[in-house]
Amino acid sequence: MRRGEGEVAEGGPLVVKTGAHTGRSAKDKFTVRDAETENQVWWETNASITPEQFDTLWQDFKAHMDGKDVFVQQLFGGADLDHRLPVRVVNELAWHSLFIRHLLRRPEPAELDGFEAEFTIVNLPSFQADPARHGCRSETVIAVDFARKLVLIGGTSYAGETKKSVFTILNYLLPKKKIMPMHCSVNVGSQDDAAIFFGLSGTGKTTLSADASRTLIGDDEHGWSENGLFNFEGGCYAKMIRLSAEAEPEIHATTKMWGTVLENVVMDPETRRLDLDDDSLAENSRGAYPMHAIPNASATGRCGHPKNLVMLTCDAFGVLPPIAKLTPAQAMYHFLSGYTAKVAGTEKGVTEPTATFSACFGAPFMPRHPADYGALLRELIAEHDVDCWLVNTGWTGGAYGTGHRMPIRATRGLLNAALDGSLNNAAFREDKLFGFMVPIAVPGVDDSILDPRSTWSDPAAYDAQAARLVTMFVENFTKFEDNVAAYVRAAAPKLPAREKTLETAAE
């Protein structure tokens, strides 16, 4: 407050503005390409800079810091005591320091004595990069040097860049130790029946994992080690836009809590009351708060091995069933595909459903080839006999604009049946296109919704839309085919008409 970095709203949260950057600057992220990373980083999706360019950037960062007050936090990335990463975070902004203190895991006071950071992150929003000098794209830069164990962030006030930098580091380091890093939420029931929820933005990852009857381990980033599942973080970074006290009371309560950091949330300057529906500053308004602010959150951030793995997709094409059971090969296929769909109005120029594929449900944060993560996940699924499910939280009865959103009550009912094991006793049918198994009847759920084709008034229109989606899946997966086993390629969806054509040609 004394530094003029933010204002306090009614109830005590700190309200800040991030300026031009209200989200991640994905195209401004670079990794140093050297002898170590040359054959370990997937350069098709990770931009590179040279060690010399990074060295120049680091020298300029140190010159920019000279004479400035900076704020330092010593924190851990990861709740697993055997595998946590000690990090030092140096911030130019005090509110950035508070933010990352919420988001990472705080050492006990005794652990601060002799604390030795393995990685250091330096975040200077007022620094402006020079593309010609630093090998970057603009005045904004996020540069990672795994050899120096150093991350430099400049030219952006969006605090999420620091959080995701820790995620990127762990995504690079942990697979070497046969630990699976995941962009997912996790909860656990009273029988130590943990569940993993993968899903891109808008699929219900946070909402569906926030179950009052189960303990929340975390809502965004986790690891899977020999000890079980563990949260990378010690806090939450929740979307605030149009947040409802009725739909998400626990998260809404944090907007009136002392110390919560609210990014780009509109506040009345006179009454200091928030308007969570106002998107004039950003559609991506966010709130950062410690995990203990959520009543049913785990204090340790750890649980046992999962019993269920759920992949969430918002299928705006209205093709996928509300739930389907996957084989381990199908789970790897859909994990690498990372499918969801955007709907009209979510982005400029989007006028009809648009397929989005993000490998591993978090491609921007994955330094290694997606197949490396997919293979590790498949091994863990097999080792621990995990049931895998695909859940569609999108549309039924037609595509977006014609059909309607999948009833949340039906989704909850199906998900609960999957998590308590009762769904395994249902009768299933094999989907003709995707090959996964779909339940025919589930107590408490309308049977008709389980067969998406029957919910369309025009079955021929469903067939055409389904064929279109299958083609998108197949075309997207071509970039992985050379890096996965034949049984994974065989898990791809198939067009019956195309198969018949191939059979005729063979004859």
TrEMBL record:
**Keyword entries, A-Z:** ATP-binding, Cytoplasm, Decarboxylase, Gluconeogenesis, Lyase, Manganese, Metal-binding, Nucleotide-binding
Question: According to the UniProt entry, what is the EC number of this protein?
Answer: 4.1.1.49
Identify the residues that bind substrate.
24, 158, 164, 286
Q: Quick one: which residues bind ATP?
A: 164, 183, 199-207, 248, 286, 411
Q: What class of enzyme is it?
A: lyase
Q: Quote the InterPro entries the UniProt record gives.
A: PEP_carboxykinase_ATP, PEP_carboxykinase_C, PEP_carboxykinase_N
Q: Which reaction does it catalyse?
A: oxaloacetate + ATP = phosphoenolpyruvate + ADP + CO2
The pathway this protein participates in, as annotated, is: Carbohydrate biosynthesis; gluconeogenesis
Q: Which domain of life is it from?
A: Bacteria
Q: Which cofactor does it need?
A: Mn(2+)
List the signal peptide residues: none
Q: Which residues bind Mn(2+)?
A: 164, 183, 220
What's any one GO cellular component for it?
cytosol
Cofactor: bound how, per the entry note?
Answer: Binds 1 Mn(2+) ion per subunit.
Its biological purpose: Involved in the gluconeogenesis. Catalyzes the conversion of oxaloacetate (OAA) to phosphoenolpyruvate (PEP) through direct phosphoryl transfer between the nucleoside triphosphate and OAA.
Family named by the database record: Belongs to the phosphoenolpyruvate carboxykinase (ATP) family.
What this protein is called in its record is Phosphoenolpyruvate carboxykinase (ATP)
**Lineage of the native species?**
Bacteria, Pseudomonadati, Pseudomonadota, Alphaproteobacteria, Maricaulales
